[in-house]
């Protein structure tokens, strides 16, 4: 019942169904738009790092930043530690699983350890570059250990900000926090912009008229003589041949009704194109009916051009109306 209401509600109420519900679904803010909420959730689900936009290292602690890449100034050997005291992050933006920052465990052979934390105590106090009570670790930060041949190992920080990179061969390494840790994070797609608005209007139209097409085709299928299909199967016909040679020809009158009706409605579509696109995207989604109304009554004050567009629209619709009239006459005579 829920699925049926989702499908048939827009057909019964096209303006609230397609003009209000769908624009809300496609809002760019993932907190509002359902589609972007799903897109952002999917991106975050497949990402193993957290995003801390605006983070930067505490000055004069042996850590520098270059194009959002934060790295240690000095090279390290396995068995040493490298901490990353960061600032520029709001306490309210910290993940829910963030806990009190802790010193990293002592590194053994083949390991480099350290802590990535927010070097800030709410209310003030503490020593710059040192882990103080009240300072939070930054979980989910990717830490790369880079050698002469590239990334030799990596790790993700724990809830207290600590990390351990293992399996390192003897040598000199640089420890870095990739720029992916500090990007803005997953954001919504501007579906209602001029780039995507045509696709959104098409989707709205398909959704609104899907119920009509389903009802018509289902009624045609229910009235079909099944014995013809069963006889064809008995004679060895494949399901594809049964569909193309029997089902489709028997359903052809219904398919013509659906096709012609949808073509006529596409040509004279007005409501969806008028209510879905925001102001800056309306020119990209413009159609004849909307242009006719705009130039006549929507501020253009050019009834002559509007009348010409109305005649053009009528001429485009007339052939399909003629097809419908002929079909109705043939059914009556038959």
Explain how this protein is built:
This protein is an alpha+beta fold and 334 residues long. It folds into 2 domains: 2-36 and 190-286, no CATH class; 56-182, Immunoglobulin-like, CATH 2.60.40. 43% of the residues lie in helices and 13% in strands. The chain contains 9 helices and 9 strands. The protein has helices spanning 2-12, 14-25, 34-45, 197-222, 226-234, 239-267, 271-275, 288-297, 303-333; strands at residues 56-57, 63-66, 69-72, 84-87, 112-118, 142-147, 150-156, 162-165, 174-177. The strands form 2 sheets. The chain has a 5-stranded antiparallel β-sheet, with no helix packed on it. A hairpin with a 2-residue loop joins strand 6 and strand 7 (150-156). Helix 2 (14-25) crosses helix 4 (197-222) and helix 5 (226-234) packs antiparallel against helix 6. The longest helix is centred in the C-terminal third of the chain and has 31 residues, at 303-333.
